[in-house]
Amino acid sequence: MKLVLLAALTPLLLAGQSNHYVGSQVCRTCHPDVWLNFNRNPHFQSIASGDLPPEKTGCEGCHGPGGNHVAAGGGKPTIRAFSQMGPEQVLNACLACHSKDLSRVNIRRSEHTNADVVCTNCHSIHKAATPKFLLAKRQSELCYTCHASIRAQFEMPVKHRVNEGFMQCTDCHNPHGTFSGRKMVTEAFDNEEPCLKCHVDKRGPFVYEHASVRIEGCMACHVPHGSTNAKLLTRPVVFTMCLECHNGAGTFGRDNTGVFLQSASHNMQDPKYQKCTLCHVRIHGSNADPTFLR
Amino acid sequence: MKTLIAVLILPAALMAQDTVAPTADEQTGPARGENVGDYNVVQSWEFGYRYALVGGSQEEYRADVNYHDGIRLLGSSLTVNSRDGHGRWFDEIVLTTQGLGNDPYESAVLRVRKNKLYRYDMLWRQNDYFNPGYAIAGGEHLQDTVYRTQDHEITLLPESAIRFHAGYSRVTQDGPALTTIQEFDNKSPVYPVFQNTRQQFDDYRVGADGTFKGFRFTVQRRWEYFREDSAYNTTQGIDFNRSAPYRGQTPGWMGNLTGEFKWVAINARATYAGGRGDFIQNDSATGLDRFGNMQNQQIVVTGNGDRPVTTGDFSVTLFPVDRFSIVNNTSVANIRMSGNNAFAELSNGTPLFNSTDFQLLTMRLVTNTSTGRYRFSKRLDVFGGFSYSDRLIQSYEFGTSAEQTNHTKAGTAGVNWIAVKNLRLHLEGEIGRNDNPFTPISLRNYHAIRSRAQYRARALTLGARYEEAYNNNSIQITAYSSRARTYSADASFAARSWLSFDTSYSRLHLDTIGGIAFFQGAPFAQLTTGTSVYISNLHAYNLGARFALGKRADLYTGYTLTKDTGPSFPLTYHSPLVRLSFRINEKLRYNLGYQYYGYHEQFGLFSTYENFHANTGYTSLLWSF
Fold first, then answer.
1. φ/ψ of residue A234, rounded to 5
2. Residue B534: is it exposed, middle or buried by C-beta count within 10 angstroms (0-12/13-18/19+)?
3. CB contact (8 A) between residue B94 and residue A131
4. C-alpha distances in Å from residue A34, one per residue of A24, A28, B8, B512, B599
5. Alpha-carbon distance B326 to B387, whole Å?
């Protein structure tokens, strides 16, 4: 009850009083648990630096001047408490220092920001589970907190090895937003399909390009998170996927007359012809064969 | 104090783990570490033995899981921090490793930082994976493909107004990859075979960024080099040799200008990547042709290709009033693939005239997107936007030139609402139209809905999500429809200091129907038309539970189930695991774990079942000092 009363009255008591900076050593008096490992925190360098203005130093660099907070004997209403702030306020507070990096230049138009997912939803400044990036949990677990359906995809038999610890979500995505917009995928070489960062051999150029790869991108045929197909295809069986495009119909394809029909020399009742990429091995593009055989 | 630290750190450290090892997240030893001179050191090392007993399809196991027997450094963690932020050579070292000593997923992550002076990051990874085998592998499928990647990035003067960056990355891949042989004419059967492939990719980059009058300017220069040396030789049946070296290089640059002021923020970027590849493929063969005649043949393809990619982006964000913001973004991308090549064929010593032109393909894409957002209160905001894109595709293929354009218009709208304390709701919808999609499965008439509810209290988090994405690309001659719906729910509950749960369920539904045409029948295949129907109902369940058993032991049990009930291609993949960790003393823990993998497919493609089951486990000592 006393705390409630204190919280209610403090703003009134302090109304009209000017706030001032007290320094992190003062904060340490009442918050030893926070201070305990703070020298391991990247934010500690603002204290170690010794030449930053008080509004960018230590505890008050984020939480604002602590004069009133000290005078009131504590309480969230007298300090900039992130748990009490709205998403936009949190974003603005962190970007006051962290807007410098190129990786965050699109944060204001990112899908996360649109969904009110901001810095403190993922980062835990004082109780970080990872020494780098101060994440609140191990990265994949953190992302799964909201993206349970993505967890389901990474538990498929064939998947990119995120759960195994070999990869991380941020190998392909930038949670702070990207130029490419959708799905926050990071581009290879700043402007190319993200998959090319690792699958460099697919970049080409090739004499014979598989046009859909270049025009529609890798996800025309692949599901990157997980699949029942050994090559992460959109269908468990390759020929069903290929035939959906190669039906010769419509105004599709390079010259608007339909995508090439499957060859008349192939009897599709014969299982060997159902494994298209067993022979068309250079399906992403070939320099030697127009049908991607070698 | 140690109890307090343990209470603070353990819940985070005990978050769900998906693989049975390593267990290095369990806290061991004093969390404060040891003070060594001016530094504070915290480290842990987990050594152990891993085993795997596999039944059923070894190939599928190696493609999907691939753990083997052996001694491992399952995981390690080292942090060294200067106590006052004024270390002589560095202020922070963070090193973590995983799976060293022949696990299929090995990695090492290093950061070294000196305040104000430099920051260095390194990431090394190696993945041994099984290149999914086929019946034709002829024993070569026993080879694993090894994929290695390393990244190095250094930033000088990281906290100053002007910073300098340099980096280097390398990706290598060694192992079998499929190629084909077709000799001595194009009516002959095509034989798929494995060839040994070695690929190497090197990326060098330097850059700088600086601040000037509220703007931050970044410039980066990059050089990428790619080489592939694949070869195939055989003397079985015919005497065949193939050599196909490829050399690629992609120099490029990127410039970015960003600035944020009271009522406006801008962000502009321009990039250029000048991809180029040089190639030779030399096939030579001697042997009997399909009629039993002796033949010799050589085919040489040489050439080079260019693939310049240029992009530009410009976004403006306006904050005319506190409650309202509007973002407009314009992006332009241009990609062009062109080149020269030569084709020479010698058949029984006689030159044959064969030639082909490089198949030109270019694409230019212009996109403009506007999004507005109005915040009624801290608890409620709405947003909406419109996107328009114009794509021009030019092609030259087999002597025919073609050009086409297509346009996409899409609208979005959404709302964020904190309905009651701790309960956040998000709803977003998108609807779009494309007037000339490139493929029969591309987006034409589509819409998407994304929604999420999340309740977050101190010890309890509940979430639910629904998403759908529908696309209809049916036209007069052919039909294509795709409907994807995703439902998911998740919960995390730290019931007691010694007990916590983490669970989720997802259902992913996908049904597609597409018009197809193909040939079938023998001896003369007839054109057949029909529809391809694919229906998948994937149920995924995940459960993790943690128990602190007294003061010395921690138990984790988990279960994942992935079940596609079809009806097109039903299968079940599930994996229970249990892990037990005993604290021997303040610095030492003993761990053991077991994980089962069971894969069972019910569709029996080509009358083969790739089912497997595997019992894997480990035992280890985790030492912190």
1. -75, -15
2. buried
3. yes
4. 11, 8, 10, 54, 47
5. 13
The pLDDT score that the predictor gives to residue B340 is: 87
| pLDDT tens-digit map of B381-411 | 999 999 999 999 999 887 888 999 999 999 9
Work out whether strand A208-209 and strand A226-227 pair parallel, antiparallel, or are unpaired.
unpaired
Q: Strand, helix or coil at A67? A: helix
> In this complex, do A37 and B180 lie within 8 Å of one another by their Cβ atoms?
no
Q: Which among A129, A55, A41, A128 is positioned nearest to A93, based on CA atoms?
A: A55
Instruction: Judge contact between A217 and A188, C-beta under 8 A.
Output: no
* DSSP code, position B161: S
Each residue of B404-428: b (16+ CB within 10 Å) or e?
Answer: bebebebebebbbbbeeeeebbbbb
The tokens for A43 are 């934010």
Which residue is it, tokens 């595709």? B393
Q: Which two tokens stand for residue B195?
A: 């060839």
pTM: 0.89
Q: Could you tell me if B204 and B211 are in contact, meaning their C-beta atoms sit under 8 angstroms apart?
A: no
Inter-chain residue contact B516 with A244, CB threshold 8 Å: yes
Q: Which of B58, B55, B60 lies closest to B605 in space, CA to CA?
A: B60
CA angle B203, B208, B213 (to 5 degrees): 155
Which of B128, B142, B130 has the alpha carbon at shortest distance from B60? B130
The residue among B599, B406, B265, B412 whose CA lies nearest residue A104 is B265
Say if the Cβ atoms of A190 and B252 lie within 8 Å.
yes
Mutate to test the interface with A, among B326, B361, B477 (most CBs of A within 10 A): B361
A37 three-state secondary structure: coil
Of B235, B245, B232, which Cα lies nearest the Cα of B193? B232
Q: What is the ipTM metric for this complex?
A: 0.88
Q: What is the 3-state secondary structure (H, E, C) of B531-590?
A: EEEEEEEEEEEEEEEEEEECCCEEEEEEEEEEEECCCCCCEEEEEEEEEEEEEEECCEEE
Q: Which residues of A29-53 are buried (b: 16+ CB within 10 A; e: fewer)?
A: eeeeebbbbbbbbbbbbbbbbeebe
Whether a cis peptide bond, with omega within 30° of 0, leads into B22 is: yes
pLDDT tens for residues B166-208? Answer: 999 999 998 888 888 888 877 787 878 888 888 999 999 999 9
Let me know the angle formed at the C-alpha of A37 by A31 and A43, rounded to the nearest 5 degrees.
Answer: 90
Of A49, A281, A288, the CB nearest to B116: A49
User: How many Å apart are CA A121 and CA A136, to the nearest integer?
Assistant: 8
Among A116, A230, A262, beta carbon nearest to B416: A116
Distances (CA, A) of B184 to A208, A288, B189, B353: 22, 15, 9, 16
Residue A176 to residues B34, B266, B452: CA-CA distances in angstroms? 36, 16, 19
Query: Are A243 and A259 a contacting pair, CB within 8 Å?
Result: no
What is the residue whose two structure tokens read 């925190």?
A41
Record the tokens describing residue B204, joined without a space: 């060098």
Closest-CA residue of chain A to B365: A215
Q: Do B371 and A114 touch (CB under 8 A)?
A: yes
Q: Is the peptide bond before A205 cis (omega within 30 degrees of 0)?
A: yes
B251 CB near a chain A CB, below 8 Å? no
Q: How far apart are CA B589 and CA B580, in angstroms?
A: 10
Q: What one-character DSSP code corresponds to residue B158?
A: T
pLDDT digits (tens, 9 = 90+) for A248-291: 888 899 888 888 888 888 898 888 888 888 889 899 999 888 88
Alpha carbon distance B606, A270 (integer Å): 10
* B473 phi and psi angles, rounded to 5 deg: -120, 35
Contact B436 A256 (CB under 8 A): yes
SS3 A22: coil
Q: Is the alpha carbon torsion for A70, A74, A78, A80 positive or negative?
A: positive
A2: tokens are 């006393």
Phi/psi for A10 (5° steps) reads -55, -50
